[in-house]
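Please go through the sequence line and token line underneath and see whether the fold suits the sequence. See right below:
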Amino acid sequence: MYYATWKPAADIFYSGNQWLIRMELAGVSPAEVQVLTQGSELTVRGRRRDLRVQHGFICHALEISYSHFERSIALPARIIVSSIRLEFQDGILNIYLTTDNYQ
């Protein structure tokens, strides 16, 4: 079973049946990210690796989650899996995809 402890923020845009989902994944390696689909649902999961504090420092506050994450987004039509294109830049994962017959 997969246990997620935080959900990354996402922005969702569309034009007809073309979609762009932007997900904030600062500090997450692209190798740690999985993108899954089932029908009209898109799921992004992965892990932001453990915090590494520089030698000699003591933590005063810890607000960033360093653990597994998962975020599912339901779209109004079936996702065409072959259309998915991923782009990772400056801590943002851009997911471009097409759905069936959404107007």
User: Anything to note?
Assistant: The beta strands are 10-15, 18-24, 33-38, 41-47, 68-74, 79-89, 92-99. The chain has a mean pLDDT of 91. Residues 40 and 75 are 5 Å apart (CA to CA). The two ends are 36 Å apart (CA to CA).
